[in-house]
Structures are given as C-alpha cells and as structure tokens.
C-alpha cells in the first residue's frame, strides 16, 4: 500500500465532514466567512446533538434524584 497523499487525506477528511456534519470543508469555510454567529450556533447544536447530550443529562438527573417528589421545573434542564 502506498503512502497517502495530501489530496487523498483531504478527500477523506472532507468525506468525513460531509457524513458527520452534512457539509464539506469548503461549504463550512464559505458559510463561516459569510455569517459567523449563525455558523457557530449551528455547529455547536450539531456537536451537542451528535454527542447525545440531552440523553446524558436526563440519565444523570435520574441517577442523582432520589424521587420525583417536589415542585416540577417549568423548563427542563436540557
């Protein structure tokens, strides 16, 4: 097997970004230059969703709380 070239590594990384985040590196960089704040919010939301943070918070809360008694929160932790 030959040593991977920079072009093949770039292609693999771009394919990974496409599969993971739904857009390739060029799309990400173009969007970042056009609208920094919305890109940051979208990217953070994608990472949180991909990491299943909501499910982890619910699981940890269930492990920490001894019972369901008491005043229920209006807004959930998640």
Shape annotation:
elongated
How many helical stretches? 4
Q: What radius of gyration results from the CA coordinates?
A: 20 Å
> What is the helix fraction of residues, given as a range?
55-70%
What is the H/E string? HHHH
Assess the beta-strand content as a share of residues: under 5%
Low-confidence parts: none
Largest sheet properties: none
Report on the structure:
The chain is mainly alpha-helical and 78 residues long. The chain has 4 helices and no strands. It has helices at residues 6-21, 25-34, 36-50, 53-64. The longest helix is centred in the first third of the chain and has 16 residues, at 6-21. The model has no long low-confidence stretch (mean pLDDT 80).
SSE topology sketch:
Blueprint: H1 6-21, H2 25-34, H3 36-50, H4 53-64
Note the main attributes of this structure:
mainly alpha; 78 residues; 4 helices
Provide a brief overview of the structure.
This protein is mainly alpha-helical and 78 residues long. It has four helices and no strands.
